[in-house]
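Hi R.,

Here's the input for the pyridoxal-5'-phosphate complex you asked about:
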Amino acid sequence: MLKENKKRVAAKLATLAGCDPSEIVITRNTTESLDTIIAGFKWQAGDEAIMAVQDYGAMLDMFREVAARHGVVNKILSVPVNPGSDEEIVALYKNAITPKTKLLLVSHVINISGQVMPIRKICDMAHEHGVKVLVDGAHAFAQLVYTIPDLHCDFYGASLHKWLSSPLGAGILYISKENQDAAWPLIGPSKSEEVGIAKFNHTGTHPVATDLTIEDSIEHYTLIGPARKQARLKFLQQYWTQQIMDMPGVIYNTPKQDTRICAIANVGIKGMPPATLAKTLFEKYKIYTVGIDTGNVVGCRITPNVFTTTKELDQLVAAIKELATAAV
Ligand SMILES: Cc1ncc(COP(=O)(O)O)c(C=O)c1O
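And here is the predicted structure with pyridoxal-5'-phosphate in place:
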């Protein structure tokens, strides 16, 4: 039953992702999906990989491990907080490519800043140079409206317990048909599973409830409506950010262009470490945020969901205005 349930639910996820059921498997989370590809990629010593300092730590850790295991050379670039154009970002990645580059990791949404990346343009450029692209969709899946094949990526990983609101412990791994032999699976498949995506589907025994609840999460998301959800999240983000982003005491760490935003945004206060800001927002104003101090993103990540009200955001705006005024 475990296998049949998994297959049925994976087919529903394929519909949601806009891909063929033969291109997607259920995993435990984004980390498992992406690290399976990073670890299992058919590396040769001296191969190069590209990633950004703003990518998620678990993936950067796995790349450090393949550097030690296989002699892979990691090129780590930094994505600007407020890029002028898609072309500026594409050029950044292009300039890091050499004849030895084999794999490029890019986040669909940079989780520390909420920046939405021009994935399709990056994939098309990388393919012109024979480089495969692995996309971290942890914060994009069921938040933004898109299909995975439309992104032109080779591999895509996401967690379902983030924006799809499934219970903890569910994710997806997409591998396009032509790339299903480009990586080894994490767990050895049985003989009957050796071909295609099935070889990435062997998990051993695990709680069936995790798979079954995904169906309810899909139904819930479909009832809300993907376009309506994305519009609501964008509205909430702009509702509060537009009131504070240009204040003198504020450091605004999220792009301003409409095409690069989602629910998440990051704001800092001049002269205040992010950990102190997070503590102050929580203890003085009862607002929970996450303090971030990574690369060029120094501030607190603010993440409303569809149920967050503008009244609640008014409290956030009042708090930021008070702190920003005191900072200058
Ligand atoms: C961009 C990004 N990638 C990957 C992950 C890891 O997700 P999980 O712990 O569900 O594997 C996160 C978690 O916050 C994330 O923000």
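One thing worth noting: DSSP finds nine helices and 13 strands in the chain.

Cheers,
M.
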